[in-house]
Structure formats: C-alpha cells, structure tokens
Write a structure and sequence with these properties.
single chain; about 600 residues; Nucleotidyltransferase, domain 5; 8-stranded mixed β-sheet; DNA excision
C-alpha cells in the first residue's frame, strides 16, 4: 500500500507510528493520542517545523502503526520500539553496552560479577555505573570481604566434586564447591553485599567494629586484625557514597544544561539517604529532549526511587508516573522543589550537567574541525557524521576474519561494531575477504544501522577497488578511502580516487585517522586471537581418540583454554565432558600435566 493511502486510512485511536525510509529502515518512532491527527501533521505546514524534522519528512517513504488502548500503553510501546530499532531521528540514550552493572547471579550459590547487559533472568542488578574501573574494584572488594565464590562451576552438578581453588586455601572464598556450606549460610553473605550496594554499608561497619573490639578484649589480636582489614576494604566502598540525608530517603535528582546543539542530563541516584551514583547523558538538543529522556530512562531502569525530582513542570509527568506503576507495580511521585535541600540537590545536578556539557563541547569542537577538514581535503559533498572502518586479519591465510568499527557523531559506537568470519573460501586473499565482508554488511542493512558517510579500509588501492565494486553492484554510492601505513604500522596517507592524499600536515585529521586505525586494528587482532585460540584448542583435541565434536564443545565451554584444561584435575575433566577416565588421562598426557 502506498504512503498516501496509509495516511488516508489512519485511525483516530491512540497508538504508535513507525516511519521508514526508502530502504525500509526505521528512522523515527512516535506516539500519539490520535494517530490520524499526529501523523498527518508531519505532511502539513512544513515551514513551521524544525530543520531536522523537515529533513526527516523528506526521507519518509513508508509507515506502520500499532493501535493501543490508551496513551500510557502507547508510551511504553514507543520506548520499547525505540530501544529495538534505535532510529536515527529519535532522541537516543547511549546503548546499555556503554555502561557497567553489578550483577548477583540467579543460581545456587550466586556470584558477584560485572556485566554490560541487563537481562530478565532473575538476577539482581545494581547500576548503571560510568566508571568501569570503579565497578571492578568494588566487585573484587566485596567478593574478598564476604568470601563469595569466583568460580564458574555449575551447582548442584559439580557440588562436592573436584578440588577447591586457590582462593579457598588463602581464605578468600568459603569453598562452597566442597559441599559443606549451606545455601542459607552463603545467602546471608550475599545479602550483606547487597546491603553495601544499596547504601546500607554502615550497618555492617558497626557489626564488624563490635566484633573487632570483642576479639581485641579477648586478646585475639590476629582475628581483630582480620576484621580491621575487612573494615578498611568496606570503607573504600562506603566513602564513595556521599551522605545526603540523615534518614533513608530514596530519590533520583535530575537536571540538565543545554546549548544550541546538545543537552547534558545528570541523574543523581540517592538510596537510603546516600548519593551512591551519578549518571551523565549527552544528547542532541531538541525541543522536548528532556521529556523524551525521562520516558526512555524509566521505561527500562534497574533501581527505582520513591521520588523523582526534576527542575520544572513537564506535560507528560502523569503518563510517566502511570507508566512506572504499570511496568513495575510501584508508585513513584515526581516533584519540582522551589527551595530547601531538594532544590540544593537540583542545583548540584545542574552544575554537574554544565561541566559535562562544557567537556562535550570541547571534544566536539575538535572532532567537528577534524571531520570538516577531512571532508574538504577529500573533496566530499556531504558532511561526515558516520565513518565505518574495516580490517582483514589472518596469519598465513589461517583463521581469516574481518572486522567493522564505527565512528559516529564524534564517538566510537560499539553498538555497531561487527565481527565476520570469512566463509567463502580458505587461504589468504585480502581482496576476496574485503568483498565478502562488505557484501554481508550492505545486504543486511537493519542489523548495521544507517549508511555511513565515509568508509575506511585498512589497505591500499586494491582493497579500495574491491570495496567500491561491491558498493556499485549493490547500488550504493559511498566514498571509500584506504589507510596507507608507514613502516611503523601507522597510517601515513589516505588513498582516495586513485591518489594518495597526505594527512600529516593536518594534525587533527591525522590524530582522528590514527585513532580510528588503532581502534580498528585492536578490535581485529582481538577477534583473530579469539578464533585462533579456539581452533588451536580444537586441533589439539582432534588428535585424541575418544573426543568428538560434542565432547570438544563441552570441554571448551567449561575450560576455555588449553592452560585452564592443563590445570584441571582428571576428575574435573571427566565431569565436564562426561567422558571415561581413560580418555581424560589421554588428554592430560597430550597437553602435559
């Protein structure tokens, strides 16, 4: 059905509309109380629209819609679809992968781990946290403090089998794998870790202090010193949690700063009276960016406060409150304080947002100048907003792989990084590899995001020609440049339109291209090592009678490397792959004890 026909039969119900471009890519998702009225507005009075909206409307070639019962349901559906499609013209929060969470796994004898992905798997999550180093440090301290397990053993299958690891012997783990620690006893320790992460660590500090003094009074100085060491570790975590209130209030304090291009939003997360985290988001500034941020943020959040504090009235506050209640079964009130402690916290969030925006502006100015200069020296017609960089990696033709790195809107966008195992042939052939990777990328458009404004290939004219051949065959007109390296494996020049283009006399361009080349190379080498490691593992096991594909896969999933397999006991190998003792013995003989 043509777009004009769809516009003529739109219902007047509430719902969500999905705009698509000529390639069928979703470019915008919106909600409406009345679908017919809202969608038709896009195709009327275009002079009253913002430039970005006018540009989007020109690209709309198709639309879908989904009718809902009410506006709150439309809001929830809109947030889910934005997260799924990540349309170019929507306000987008950074992808979850850019943040770290602390996860308490949903398994017998839970583990404390870091993750970048929140799943509905029954586990408990804390975060997100911006500083990866701080998160890892906190997790290691908590595991050591409460003697939580670090192994990946599967319980109850592996309970009481095999030897406990080194952490048990140096008293950093209870050794639950031995089978003599009850789930109840272990769970109490997990809950103590939860208390610390929830801002209630002071309770545990007081308990430990009382125990330390008790040991000291009884002249048990060694035990007292152990407790003192634990207190020191615990205080490292607690000192990062600033006391805001004397009571146990839980609030999210949200404020922003904006200029003509961007808006920086800061969320101060207060739990049990303590500021336990700060989140920062820098988004493209539009008329309703702050409201759209609140909708998306609370459509998928790990920890809810009792109160959300914002700087001014917004139109959709009722819908946000109802959305939270419908999604989580929990009532949250949104308030706008004019004075007092809460207003001071809003001012603190505002100040942090201003700093974040200023930092972003400095970085953006540098990248904007670099991209503009790059556009000019290559003689491109369009602005460069998105660059895709490709690399092929192999050793003597073995384990041939390709990788894709994306630089978009002044940042490396890891959401769209991709790995390709070369499948079309065996042996070393960079030209065929480039063709295969580019073909797979540009015949699967929805998976890879919007079309780039420039493609960089790690290689010379032959690789560039291979990429252009694929693009021309598939009907794409995208500029392609090759990154020519010097004897130190650093990009010296670019190959474009059959000529070498010098970039060393343009410092900002050189630094940008060098950063992209280094990131592309790092990602390619990392993937190549992963593939080689697995193949090396498999090739050694292939030589052992009694090891087929299923057993080989089980061993790889359990141990992951030859080194780990070498360290394992025969009993652990027998259990991991359900193999006879004699076969496990052959494995140990083959790889060395």
């Amino acid at each position: 059905m043509l777009l004009e026909e769809k516009l003529s039969i739109l219902p007047t119900s509430p719902g969500v509309y999905i705009m698509k471009d000529e390639n069928g890519n979703v470019i915008y998702v919106g909600k409406a109380v009345n679908l017919r009225n809202r969608v038709r507005q896009y195709f009327q009075n275009s002079q009253d629209m913002l430039p970005k909206t006018r540009l989007m409307v020109k690209k709309i070639k198709d639309l879908d819609y989904i009718v809902t019962d009410n506006e709150v349901e439309a809001l929830i559906l809109e947030c889910n679809l934005i997260k799924e499609y990540r349309p170019k013209y929507n306000v987008l929060l950074r992808d979850d992968k850019n943040y770290q969470y602390i996860k308490i796994t949903n398994e017998m004898f839970p583990r404390l781990v870091t993750t970048r992905k929140v799943e509905k798997d029954g586990s408990r999550y804390f975060g997100p946290y911006v500083s990866g180093y701080s998160v890892k440090q906190t997790v290691e301290l908590l595991k050591s403090l409460f003697m939580l397990r670090t192994c990946k053993k599967k319980f109850p299958d592996q309970l009481g089998k095999g030897r406990p690891c080194l952490n048990f012997h140096i008293e950093k783990c209870l050794g639950v794998c031995k089978g003599d620690v009850s789930e109840e006893e272990y769970q109490k320790l997990v809950e103590r870790a939860v208390k610390v992460l929830s801002g209630k660590g002071d309770e545990i500090v007081e308990e430990l202090k009382a125990k330390m003094f008790e040991y000291a009074e009884n002249l048990m100085f060694e035990k007292a010193q152990e407790i003192k060491n634990k207190l020191s570790s615990l205080e490292q975590i607690i000192t990062k949690q600033k006391v805001i209130y004397a009571d146990d209030r839980s609030e999210d304090v949200i404020n922003f700063a904006k200029d003509h291009t961007h808006i920086a939003i800061v969320v101060l997360i207060i739990r049990n009276g303590k500021l336990i985290n700060k989140e920062e988001f820098v988004l493209k500034a539009e008329e309703d960016t702050f409201e759209r941020f609140l909708e998306q943020y609370y459509a998928d959040v790990v920890s809810l406060p009792k109160e959300i504090i914002i700087p001014h009235e917004i139109e959709n506050v009722y819908n946000i409150e109802k959305m939270i209640e419908k999604l989580y079964g929990f009532k949250v009130k949104v308030t706008i304080p004019k004075q007092g402690e809460k207003k001071q916290l809003l001012d603190m969030a505002k100040k942090n947002a201003e700093i974040s925006l200023a930092n972003r502006q400095r970085v953006d100015d540098v990248y904007a100048e670099a991209l503009l200069t790059l556009k000019n020296i290559l003689g491109l017609e369009n602005e460069i907003e998105k660059i895709e960089s490709y690399d092929i990696s192999n050793i003597a033709g073995a384990d041939n792989v390709g990788t894709l790195v994306v630089f978009e809107d002044g940042r490396f966008n890891k959401e769209f990084y991709r790995k390709f195992k070369i499948k079309g042939f065996e042996g070393q052939d960079d030209i065929r590899s480039v063709k295969e990777v580019l073909t797979r990328r540009f015949t699967n458009l929805e998976k890879h995001g919007r079309i780039p404004d420039l493609i960089l290939i790690d290689g010379g004219q032959n690789q560039v020609n291979a990429a252009l051949e694929v693009l021309n065959t598939l009907g794409f007109s995208i500029p392609v440049a090759g990154m020519v390296k010097d004897d130190k494996h650093k990009t010296r020049d670019l190959i474009y339109n059959g000529k070498e283009v010098g970039i060393q006399e343009y410092p900002l361009v050189y630094k940008l291209i060098y950063a992209i080349q280094e990131e592309t190379h790092r990602f390619a080498v990392k993937f190549h090592r992963e593939v080689r490691k697995k193949h090396l593992y498999e090739s050694i096991l292939d030589e052992i009678e009694g090891i087929g594909e299923k057993r080989k896969l089980k061993l790889f999933r359990t141990f992951g490397s030859i080194d780990n397999l070498r360290k394992a006991s025969i009993e652990e190998i027998v259990k991991a792959a359900d193999i006879p003792y004699e076969v496990a013995l052959k494995i140990k003989e083959k790889i060395g004890v």
